Each structure stands twice: as C-alpha cells, then as structure tokens.
Amino acid sequence: MVYLKSEQEIELMRKSAQLVSLTHAEVAKYIKHGVATSKLDLVAEEFIKQHNAKPAFKGYGPRSNPFPYTLCISVNDSVVHGFPGNYELQHGDIVSVDCGINLNGYFGDVAYTYIVGECDPETFKLLTTTAESLYRGIEQAVHGNTIGDIGNAVQKHCENAGYGVVRDLVGHGLGKSLHEDPSVPNFGRAGRGKRLRSGMTLAIEPMINKGSWKVKTLKDGWTIVTADGSVSAHYEHDVVVREGEAEILSTFQYIEEITKIQIDQSLTHG
Ligand code: MG
Ligand code: MG
Predict the structure, then answer these.
(1) How many domains does the chain have?
(2) Structural domain boundaries, residue 83
(3) d(Cα 193, Cα 162) in Å, to the nearest integer?
(4) pTM above the 0.85 mark?
(5) What is the CATH number of the domain that holds 144?
(6) Ligand 2 centre distance from Cα of residue 183 (Å)
(7) How far, in Å, is the centroid of ligand 1 from the Cα of 205?
(8) Which residues 6+ apart lie within 8 Å of 62 measured at CB?
(9) Ligand 2 mean position to 169 CA, how many Å?
(10) What is the pLDDT of residues 122-172, one digit of tens each?
(11) Which ligand is nearest to the Cα of residue 98, counting in written order?
C-alpha cells in the first residue's frame, strides 16, 4: 500500500529529514582517526533526543534480534547495518553512517559515507560516483515515471564505472513508518515497475561496491559486508515525487560544511 502525502505531511517530513541531516553534521565533527565508532552512536543519540525526536533504528527488526543502536556504522568493506563498537577509526577508512529518526510521528532516514582524513583516489571515485548515482536516481523520481526508471539510472551510472550495485538491499517508501511501500531497488529496467505519483515520499539509497555486487551477512544477523572484501559506499536522501522535478527533503550541505570534503558535487551548482 503506497501512501500519498498531503502538503502538511510533507512539511512534517521535511522537518524530520532536516533533523537527520543536522544529526549527521553533528556526527561528522567526530569522524577522526582514533575515535571509537561507539562515540559516534552516543553523539547521535544525544543530539536526536535533545531535539525531541527518537532514534528509529534502535529496537527495529525482529523481536528475537532487534537492531541495538542509534546509528548503523559500516566501515570499509561493510556495506550497511554495521554495529557501532570499540573499533577506532583509522586514517584512510571510509565510514558509512546511516541514521533514522522519528520526529512527531514522521520518519527521516539519511546515509552518508565519510572519509577519515584522506582516502586513496580510487576510493574517492567510488564515493563521488555513488553520490552522483543518487542524484541520477532522484532526477527520475517525477510523476508519471516508474520505480524502474530510478533503479535503471542508478545502476547504469555505477556499472558504467565498473562498480557492483548491491541487489539484496533496496530503498523504500518513507513516512509514518520507516519502511513503506514501494521498494526502490538501485537496479532495474526503465519504464518497469510501479508508476510514480506526486506526493509519494521515497528514501533513495544506492549501496555500491567497488567490486562485485555480492554481499554476505555476519553472525550478528545484521552487518552486511561485501563478499569479495572490496570497499562499499552508501548515500541516501529523502525525496518527494513531484510533477516535473523531485524535491529533496534532506541535505548533505550541513555535513560538508563540517568535513570540508565535497563528495556531493551537486552542491557546486545549487
Ligand atoms: Mg537509511
Ligand atoms: Mg533507508
């Protein structure tokens, strides 16, 4: 069941998406060599609670094994759903941070892959290509297009660069639930799949591996890593399907004001 949102609801979702974006910027201040990933989780949880919101991931999932943290922190060959912990960030690491919040009953969900210090140029290329593919996907999120148009745009952009597009995990509708219909794969055929309509709100989130698209799950039941050990990137925005041009509710601008590293090339032209 796809829920189309009213303008009032979209306004609430904009507030949620903005708060997650600001939470990321707060976390970005601590992405440094020697910082334990558990510290990032604490920073995020405190910030979210100070702003009268709730972490959306903590407790999410099956009752037998709910996700235990505020952030998913996935370092290097970890794709998504990594656990914060004792690991101390090392110069040259890439760190995918995924954050979800619930503010006034509406969810925001934003992911960004950070660099600790500097990374090698090939890895930087993976990050910029993944971020670019996110915007290629968003460009397709207009009334009258289909879900397949989004996935096709992401897939083409990343596969042309020789990267693997993760199949096992996908984007999703977003609203009063963290995951709503429809699913938004990062691969697919143009013109196929559900028709997009104005007022649909989607979390579009390419997960792109430097090597093969294949992934595996670790024993904790959550952490997804690349099967071949190659590094992986993840960027996610919350968007509204509109006539003519999609609207992006979240932003990476606050993050990149802190990191001074521009992965989001779209920021150079507004
Ligand atoms: Mg997310
Ligand atoms: Mg998501």
Answers:
(1) 1
(2) 7-269
(3) 25
(4) yes
(5) 3.90.230.10
(6) 10
(7) 7
(8) none
(9) 9
(10) 999 999 999 999 999 999 999 999 999 999 999 999 999 999 999 999 999
(11) 1
